[in-house]
Write a structure and sequence with these properties.
mainly alpha; de novo design (two linked rop proteins); rod-shaped
Length: 152
């Protein structure tokens, strides 16, 4: 399995981005500015927390941010019920957006489960190879031995 190098490669991030784009599009003309602000902020929080957690570098912090992202997906779903009840959405659009938010939540949970089971503690705990102190001594004091060990 390949190691993911950047958060943009995560499926849960891509889906969260799709959710955010759809929320912004659907509520761009909404005049209930308090509601519009709340639902757009919640949707942005999903993808932002996935990205921030990924960049933190530790497994525990990443998991914490993934769970915050999952909570924000739940907040989006709750706000969608408000939008439906207030008449800001028709039933078809509600179902589409609610399914998208639910899918984000499932993907984040599934990914968090995989991160939990992973052996790596995160990039901050990556073991770095230390220089062999004998290498420099051999290079200067016994070049013939150095060549046999290090230049083949």
């Amino acid at each position: 399995m390949a190691t993911i190098q950047k958060f943009e490669d995560l499926i849960c991030f891509s889906k969260a981005r799709e959710l955010t784009k759809s929320i912004y599009k659907e509520f761009k003309d909404c005049r209930d500015y308090g509601f519009k602000d709340q639902i757009t902020r919640a949707s942005v929080s999903v993808l932002s927390n996935i990205a921030e957690g990924f960049e933190r570098g530790t497994k525990n912090e990443f998991l914490n941010f993934l769970y915050i992202a999952k909570g924000s997906a739940g907040e989006v779903r709750a706000q969608l019920y408000v939008a439906l009840d207030a008449g800001y959405l028709n039933l078809e659009t509600f179902k589409y957006l609610n399914n998208l938010a639910s899918e984000c939540s499932r993907l984040v949970q599934s990914f968090a489960d995989k991160v939990k089971k992973g052996a790596s503690a995160g990039t901050q705990f990556k073991k770095l190879e230390k220089d062999d102190p004998m290498k420099e001594i051999l290079r200067t004091q016994a070049p013939d031995v150095y060549k046999r060990f290090y230049e083949n």
